[in-house]
Amino acid sequence: MTRAFIFMMDSFGIGGAPDAKSFGDEGANTFGHIAQAVPNLNIPNLLSLGLDKAAFLASGLKTELKPSSSAKLNLPSAYGHMKEISKDKDTVSGHWELAGLPNLQGWGHFKPDYPSFPQALIDNICREAKLSGILGNIAASGTVIIQELGEEHIRSNQPICYTSADSCFQIAAHEKYFGLKRLYQVCEIAYKYVQEYRIGRVIARPFIGEKSGEFTRTTNRKDYAAQPFGKTLLDYLKQQGRHVYAIGAINDIFAHRGITNPIHAAELPNLWDATIKAMQEAPDNSLIFTNFEDFDMLYGHRRNPQGYAQALEYFDSRLPDILPHLREDDVCFITADHGNDPTFKGTDHTREQVPILCFGKNITPQDLGQRETYADLGQTIADYLQIAPLNFGTSFK
Fold this sequence. Notes:
6-stranded mixed β-sheet; 13 helices; about 20% strand; globular; alpha/beta; about 400 residues; about 35% helix; 8-stranded mixed β-sheet
């Protein structure tokens, strides 16, 4: 019996979004520009699955990377590229669309300049959380703003609140001086009050360190995402009594819905270890959905193509680890939720197409071509796992 696995490479776009210009992202190409910046990029397994072909079809940009005989995956694969129809280019919209629920309405957004947040919102949060005030109140890079305001935060005990081009309200606080539990409590309060503004996520951003220049964010990030406004693939599978393993940020992104086996993990090695362990135990007709967030969080937003390339090489090196645990009818998918070109202007996500690599022991090799929505992935998995069709997408099984 079939099991399905989604290895979601957070932010690994391949360029060529037809509507990129309307987002200010014309010319963005996460994979293509990394390959240009790091010409010795060593990802033989991804190339063996057709990544370079999918990327060329999406954007017309040749990477000049050569498939290597060192590839160890050696599985038949189908490859293609998918465009996004959701109105935003954020993580939540991308994931929901992959699971058959595109965000056709779009989110609300806070303005980028100071003050970003409505005073009524801040007043409500401060009153209920018993805060004397907040710091920040502007669109900013999280890694930058904690260096700028971290010492003042420790002195004042006021959390650092900021936003970005995404629909989000982010709260940074020191794990030791403010407390992780208290940070989560403040985020829960903020989540309640941002609902009227149609904000996609409140994000807890804990950090440590003693002075500016030494503050670093920890892996205890927690996302408070809006509830999906309809049923996703995960909901339908759970209703049918199927096992849905959510590894990494997936549980938060789907607001804890449609999940039977939530698994906390952070950083690429731990995410891969958790994924392999889940593959060992998952019964027939299961879905395992892993978000590999390092690409986006550590390298895309920080505009670090070399670090992104090293993460790609590590991801590629772990792909053969699935082979001992892959059953005859299992089907695997590699895709992404948006782009985040580390060579592009700014620090925000980039509107791009994403790869769809479908592989397994019994997959028919083929060019899947242009997919009109990320939701084709969810529809295809519904087809493989034999549940009723979803409302969006076309199966390529």
